[in-house]
Amino acid sequence: MAFTITSPFQMANPKCDSLKKEKASLEAKIADIKAKAAKENKIGNWDAKSDRLSQVNEQLVQNKCK
After folding, report:
1. Closest Cα to residue 63, out of 27, 8, 11, 1?
2. C-alpha torsion sign, points 21, 27, 33, 35
3. Over the stretch 32-54, which tens digit does the pLDDT of each residue have?
4. What percentage of the chain carries pLDDT values higher than 70?
5. Residue 58 pLDDT > 70, yes or no?
6. CA 5 to chain CA mean position, Å
7. What is the pTM of this model?
8. Is the confidence at residue 19, as pLDDT, over 70?
9. What is the pLDDT of residue 8?
């Protein structure tokens, strides 16, 4: 007999929370750089932030954060 337990009370993982905040921050910074580059018709450099964003995404997967 299979059953599932749904509960609104879940353990908060502070590491996941900090990674999610960093991910949101990086995505916002990259979007700003891209928008500024498009507006000024110049080349923007978001490679380092993009690399860090991919690292954060990998850590989220490894820690099984949802």
Report:
1. 11
2. negative
3. 999 999 999 888 898 999 999 99
4. 82
5. yes
6. 28
7. 0.74
8. yes
9. 60
Structure token digits, residue 21: 């905040």
Distances (CA, A) of 65 to 18, 19, 24, 33, 53: 11, 9, 14, 27, 15
Q: Please, are residues 53 and 22 in contact by the beta-carbon 8 Å criterion?
A: no
In 3D, which of 20, 32, 28, 31 has the Cα closest to residue 56? 20
Look up residue 66 and give its DSSP letter. -
Distance separating alpha carbons of residues 4 and 10, to the nearest angstrom: 14
SS (H, E, C) 1-65: CCCCCCCCCCCCCHHHHHHHHHHHHHHHHHHHHHHHHHHHCCCCCCHHHHHHHHHHHHHHHHCCC
